[in-house]
Amino acid sequence: MRNLRALSHRCRPWRADMVSRSFASADTRADVDADRLYDAIRSFSSPDELKQYFKSSRIVLSNEVVDGVLKRFRFGHGNPLQALEFFRHASRRRGFDHSAFSADTMLYILGRSRKFDLVWEVLTEMKRTDRSMITPRTVMVVLGRIAKVCSVRQTVESFRMFRKFVPEFDTTCFNALLRTLCQEKSMHDARNVYHALKHDFRPDLQTLNILLSGWKSAEEAESFFEEMKEMGVKPDVVSYNCLVDVYCKGREIDNAYKVVERMREEDISPDVITYTSIIGGLGLVGQPDKARDVLKEMKEYGCYPDVAAYNAAIRNYCIAKRLGDAYSLLDEMESKGLSPNATTYNLFFRVFFWSNDLWRSDGLYRRMMDAGCLPNTQSCMFLVKLCKRQENVDFALKLWNDMIEKGFGSYTLVSDILLDLLCDLGKLAEAEKCFLQMVEKGQKPSHVSFRRIKVLMELANRSEALQNLSEKMRILQS
Hints:
Blueprint: H1 4-7, H2 29-43, H3 47-56, H4 63-75, H5 80-92, H6 100-112, H7 116-129, H8 136-149, H9 152-161, H10 171-184, H11 187-197, H12 205-214, H13 218-230, H14 237-249, H15 253-265, H16 272-284, H17 288-300, H18 307-319, H19 323-335, H20 342-354, H21 358-370, H22 377-390, H23 393-406, H24 411-424, H25 428-440, H26 447-459, H27 463-477
């Protein structure tokens, strides 16, 4: 194996962002106001209550506050209709203009709930008030949600509808469509749409790189790479990184190194993405120690590892079941000022789940929360499934209460398993409390969970409590 040092050029130094973007760990006035607003909005049952609240409240609606509230609705899987009512209320405030971030977040929330009619309503309102907020990123946000549940034809039709909304319906928007199709559909679909629409736009290097990045086989990627050069397009570092990545995922490490050599001949310096792909590829061929050496070598050439690079190296050790080395890299990350993300911790949670190790899962969860890193849905599912397997109610309820308090994870997915655990063990009071907490969040428990609680309440002759839950389910359903 060639030494990566011989293939490397100096990369532009990468500086870690030392400031956490997590709203959970921030302690600013805007975050405090956003927390208060988010909790208040979820308790309102009508738009009039929201209006009355703002009349009596002294909270000033700044872009930071509105962005924070909508961010909480997104990551807390809050009620999309409550979020929309708040979004529209803010729009009506004199002197207030939404940021592009808040608009895109609102569209994401509606799209995730498949409320596409409301998505187009909001876009129409944005076009009327400030059309410049509708950007290619907006196009990608909306199309990404549509493509998840609709056909390619419907996705393309929605893309064409954006011609009426986007100030400049150009190649950047076309690229957003292709990227969405590569992510949510198939390369065959993306390639067909590319050929069908390329004459309406002017494909650029980014267009071709998007298509190049979507190929799964090395043969197809190499063929398209040569096609790009025949079109007179000069590949850049992104183009070469696509080739390196496809070779590494195919366990063709020698070919990946040859691509790095070609980069050198073209006077293109490998960047952190190049190295991250190689780190992952070395792990796939069972060489986690060589992958760790890459972390050291890239630093010597001024290309500093980021969280993704460390995650790739940690993943290698987790696959090899060398958790001591994995934890060593986790400590090294933090010592370098890099904040591990949910993906980092999930690498460990996956190992603990399959080894049925709840004790170490609990310890890592505490470390994660102490670091201010909120778990995502995958983290929660690993943990709550492990709790159910071991019939550990205490840890399951601790996780659930943290979710309720801090607004992370999917309440619907986690509650199905949690309520199943509680009902199995006859914990009716706890199950009822979790059910009501979820309803207060504007989230509808599944009918399966409701039926299990219903049976227990009927056996316990708690008709009044059952009637209360039935009424709440009816309201949520409507």
